[in-house]
What we know:
Mean pLDDT: 84
Number of strands: 0
CATH topology: Growth Hormone, Chain: A
CATH superfamily: MFS general substrate transporter like domains
Number of helices: 16
Structural class: mainly alpha
Largest sheet: none
Radius of gyration: 20 Å
Shape: globular
Distance between the termini: 15 Å
Helix content: over 70%
Strand content: under 5%
CATH class: Mainly Alpha
Low-confidence stretches: none
CATH architecture: Up-down Bundle
Amino acid sequence: MRDPRLLHIILLVAVLAALGQITNTIYVPAMSQIAHGLVVRAGKVQAVMACYLIMYGVSQFFYGPLSDYFGRRPCVLVGVLIFCIGSLVATCAPSLGWLEVGSLIQGAGAGVGGMMARSAMRDLYTGRQLHVATSYMSSALIIAPLLGPLLGGVLSASLGWRADFAFLLFAGIATMLAHYYYLPETNRYVRMPGTELHLALRSYWEIASQPRFQGYVLCLMLVFGGVSVFEASAGILFAHLLHYSPLAVSLFFVSPLFGYLLGAWLAGRLHQWLTLNQIIMCCIVLLALGAFSLLLTAILGWLNIYAILIPICFYFFGSGMIFPAATAGALEPFGQAAGKAGALLGGLQNLGASACTFVSASLTYHSQLPLAMILVVLTLLIIVVFRVSSIKNVSISS
């Protein structure tokens, strides 16, 4: 893990993936501003995030096999260019519909970062080192959701909500230049003899048909769905219902992410003493504690910042632990197909999150009850998946 030749690659990949994370959260403090400026109901702005997640997920189905065949580097450059185009459209959007179009294009480009965050780690590491590497990547990526809303709150408060998307445009250009000059090819199997692209696309079915892969992906879809629903509804809860300023909303929004950071860090340590099965069981306990506590505060009518943030911190703590564990468990069996496996995992995970976010956008928020109900249902489904799937018997090889 301390090889300097690999560390700079991990840093570049983390920056690339972080760009996608920032895009998903930077405008959360400005959601009320966006609704007012585009003359729409505040809850409908959640659809912008859902549009982004849809294309962020779908695009990874294509980046995976393309990067296996042509290499990771050219896919990265094309993806970031597409992202820049989407950021330009979003910055100039005259209506919510055009903002959604810009968000769709952004997602189509940023999906390459999600693919690289998983595939590049599998290119460079195997076994327990892969688990540790994914834990470090998860820890590194927490900086983006922390900085995104804080930056977005400052920009929107001083320059308006369009400044958030203008920042993403310039950040995309800088990212493309950095990867053009400094990112080497990590895929050792580029253009293998006898490899055909259409066969690579069809191999998705072979990967998806493995019960172990199915179990981990379902867990990731459900957990990420809960995280995304909170991210999408935070602006409504904190700004529209509790009437906090954009800067205050950004500070409240990032608070639970420290729990995620602690969970991701702890997951990288616990693998030395606990099996993957035991780590995931700990995660489920924390997720349930957060979800049911939030439901209790909603039933009791406690609508305040503490009644929301404390349960959400527990939920994010469990999320931070389960993401690296489940990702490593899903990708461990794949070597030359790491791009396709990582893309399929990331794509399905984000499609599940977009579906949950669309459900949230269709609900009317008068309290934290809609958020709590969604998190409880998702947590119960995770318990069912863990009980009936084969992943509870899996352990990472050394």
